[in-house]
Write a structure and sequence with these properties.
The complex is a heterodimer. By secondary structure, chain A is mostly beta strands. Chain A contains no helices and 12 strands. Chain A has strands spanning 3-5, 10-14, 19-21, 24-26, 32-39, 46-52, 60-61, 64-69, 74-79, 88-96, 104-106, 110-115. Chain A is globular and about 45 Å long. The relative contact order of chain A is 0.34. Chain B is an all-beta fold. The chains are: A mainly beta, B mainly beta. Chains A and B meet through β5, β6 and β11 of A and β5, β9 and β10 of B.
Chain lengths: 116, 113
C-alpha cells in the first residue's frame, strides 16, 4: 500500500516571498504520478501541479514548481512570489500508473497562510 | 460549462436515517470517485467506479453504498450503519488511465444530529 506524509501541519509566509511545502511518499511501484492539490476556504479542490515519475524534469506551472527526488521519494512544492490568494490547505497525492481508475492517496495536508 | 455538481451543499439528518448525496458530471469521464474528508486526516477513498454498472470499495467503504446506472451520475448513500457519518464529502471524476488527474466537485457537508 502507498502512503503519503506531509510533516508540516501549518506554515506561514509573507506576501511576495517564497515558501516550500514538503511531501514524502512510500511505494514499491515504479510507474506512478504525484500531485499537489489546493483547497481554499471554499473547500473546492483545485489541481496545482502534477509530476509523472518517469520524467526526470521537475514540473513547473507559473509560480508553482516541484522538486521531485525519486530515489529519496520526496516531492516538495515551491511557491514563488506568494500571493494572498495562495492561502489554502495544500494536499500532496499519489496515484499508481497502472489500471483504469486513478485512485488517489492523499497526505494529511499543510495549511498555508500568506500574510501582508 | 463542463464540471461536477454536488447537491446539496449542506445536509442535516437525524441519527439512524439513511441519506443520499448527489454527484453529477458532464465531462464525459468514465471514472468517478467518492472521498470523505475529516479534520486533520486528508481525503480518504470510499468507493470508485470505472464504468457504468460497476464499482469497487475504497479504503473506508463500510456503512456506505453507491450505484452507477448512468455515466454522468454516481450517488452515495450514507446508511445508518456508518458509525460516524458527520464529515465533508467530495465527489471526483477522471478521464481514465491516460490522464490520472481527478477533477473535484464543490463537496457536501453532512451533519448527523
Amino acid at each position: 500500500a502507498q502512503t503519503v506524509t506531509q510533516s508540516q501541519p501549518e506554515m506561514s509566509v509573507q506576501e511576495a516571498e517564497t515558501v516550500t511545502l514538503s511531501c514524502t511518499y512510500d511505494t514499491s511501484e515504479s510507474n506512478y504520478y504525484l500531485f499537489w492539490y489546493k483547497q481554499p476556504p471554499s473547500r473546492q479542490m483545485i489541481l496545482v501541479i502534477r509530476q509523472e515519475a518517469y520524467k526526470q524534469q521537475n514540473a513547473t506551472e507559473n509560480r508553482f514548481s516541484v522538486n521531485f527526488q525519486k530515489a529519496a521519494k520526496s516531492f516538495s512544492l515551491k511557491i514563488s512570489d506568494s500571493q494572498l490568494g495562495d492561502t489554502a490547505m495544500y494536499f500532496c497525492a499519489f496515484s499508481r500508473g497502472t489500471g483504469t481508475a486513478s485512485k488517489l492517496t492523499f497526505g494529511t495536508g499543510t495549511r498555508l497562510q500568506v500574510t501582508l | 460549462d463542463g464540471g461536477i455538481t454536488q447537491s446539496p451543499k449542506y445536509l442535516f439528518r437525524k441519527e439512524g436515517q439513511n441519506v443520499t448525496l448527489s454527484c453529477e458530471q458532464n465531462l464525459n469521464h468514465d471514472a468517478m470517485y467518492w472521498y470523505r474528508q475529516d479534520p486533520g486526516q486528508g481525503l480518504r477513498l470510499i468507493y470508485y467506479s470505472q464504468i457504468v454498472n460497476d464499482f469497487q470499495k475504497g479504503d473506508i467503504a463500510e456503512g456506505y453504498s453507491v450505484s452507477r446506472e448512468k455515466k454522468e451520475s454516481f450517488p452515495l448513500t450514507v446508511t445508518s450503519a456508518q458509525k460516524n457519518p458527520t464529515a465533508f464529502y467530495l465527489c471526483a471524476s477522471s478521464i481514465g488511465a491516460a490522464s490520472r488527474e481527478q477533477f473535484f466537485g464543490p463537496g457536501t457537508r453532512l451533519t448527523v444530529l
